[in-house]
Amino acid sequence: MAQEIARFPQAAVRADRRSVYLQHGLPARAALEREWTNCSGIFAAEGAAGAARFAKGAGRHGDFGNMAQP
């Protein structure tokens, strides 16, 4: 599984990991606000392109082999 995760954009993976730690114990609304603050720049830099590839069918049904970056 680690090898699969390692193929994803690393800034996004690190931001997701950081979000887990930053949100621990917070009420849902505060946790979502903190996640947005933590990840919004990363989404603009890396996530939007990945989301577009997913919308076109890449990565569906657990098949991440076709998620390679353009």
Structural write-up:
By secondary structure, the chain is an all-alpha fold. The protein contains 3 helices and no strands. It has helices at residues 2-6, 10-23, 28-55. The longest helix has 28 residues, at 28-55. The chain is globular, with a radius of gyration of 13 Å. The two termini are 22 Å apart.
* Low-pLDDT stretches: none
End-to-end separation: 22 Å
Provide the residue-averaged pLDDT.
80
- SSE order in H/E notation? HHH
Q: How large is the share of residues in beta strands?
A: under 5%
The radius of gyration is 13 Å
Give the class from helix and strand content and strand pairing. Answer: mainly alpha
Tell the overall outline. globular
Discrete helix count = 3
Helix content: 55-70%
What topology emerges from the helices and strands here?
Elements: H1 2-6, H2 10-23, H3 28-55
Question: What's this, in brief?
Answer:
The chain has 70 residues and is mainly alpha-helical. The protein has helices at 2-6, 10-23, 28-55.
Features:
mainly alpha; 70 residues; 0% strand; single chain; globular
